[in-house]
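Researcher: I'm preparing a figure for a lab meeting and need a structural model of a single chain. I don't have an experimental structure, so a prediction will have to do for now. The sequence is pasted below. Please return the structure as C-alpha cells so I can convert it later.
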Amino acid sequence: MVNLLDRRKTWPAALLALTACAAPPIDVDYFQPPITISAPPARPITQFSLYNNTTLVRLGEMKAQVTAFNGKGLLMASWTPHPQGTRARPTFVVVHGGHGLVPTNFASGVWLRDTFSANVLVLDSYWSRGQNENWATRTRFGANMRALDVIAAGKWLRDEHHVDTAQMFVMGDSQGGWTVLRSFTEDALLSTPMKALYRGGIAAYPNCFSLDTAVAPKLSPYIAPVIVFTGGKDTATPIAECPKRVLESAAQWTHYPDQTHGWDAANRGAAGQAVDGECGKAMNVYNKFPVCRSNATTDDMRRKIEQFVNDLLPR
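Model: Understood. Here is the structure written out cell by cell.
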C-alpha cells in the first residue's frame, strides 16, 4: 500500500505551498480548469465501450451539455430523463472516481433508474477537461473542483429540466465518494447552493483524508443527510485516513470489514452480469490496489441506499 502523504514528495512547489497552510476560501478560477474537449474519448482509459454502457442499457449518450459552475463551457454527461417526465420523481447525479467514468458508474445509474423510477445524470469531470484520470488525487482536479461540478449539475437539472430538488441526490464512489462528502460539508461557498439543490448524498468507499487545505479540504459537518460505506481491506481509500468525525457525522455509516475497494465493480460492464468474487488490480500508477467484486455486499449496500433514499423522499 502506498502512503498518500508520501506522494507530496513528487508534487510541484505551487501545490506544496497550497498544502502547507490552512485552506483559504475556494478559488473558483483555480478549481475550474478549462473545458477543452466536447466529445468523449473513443476508448476511455479502462478500454470499455461507451455504447455498451449507455445506449445498450438505455442510458443517454455521453455528450457536452451541463453548463460549468463558472459558465465557461459544457461538462459531458449521460442524461436519462424518465420517459413519463422529469417532475415529481427522484433524480440522481452519479459522479465517478479517480479513473474517470467506468462501467460501475453506469451500472449504478441503471440500478438507480430502475429501483426508483428515477431520472439519472452520469456526470463527467475529467474528459471534458482533457484529463482521463486523477491518480495523484490532491490536485486542482480533486474534491473542490468536483463539488463545484455537482452544484453545476444540480442547477442545470433544476433550471433546464425542472426536476424536483426535494428528491435530488448525489451518488459517488472512491474519489466520487470524496466529492459527495466535500459537496455536503458546511462551507461558505458550497452550502447555500447545495441546500437549495440536493436532499442527500451517497458515498461508497470514499477518499476521506481531510487536512483543511485547498487540495485536501475540510470534510464534515454535513448540511444534509449523507450515507457512507467503507471496506476494511480497502488499501486505495483506507479507513485509517478518515478522521473519526468524517464518518461519525454521517447520517448512516456502514463498514464491511472483509471488503476491498470497489466491491460493486461492474466487471462485465453495465450490460453484463458481474462475476462474484472476481478480483482485479486498479490501473493507478501510485497504488495498484485490489478490487474484488462481492454480490452480497453490493446487495446489502443497495438495500441500505434504498431505505435511506425512501426515508428522505417526500411523503
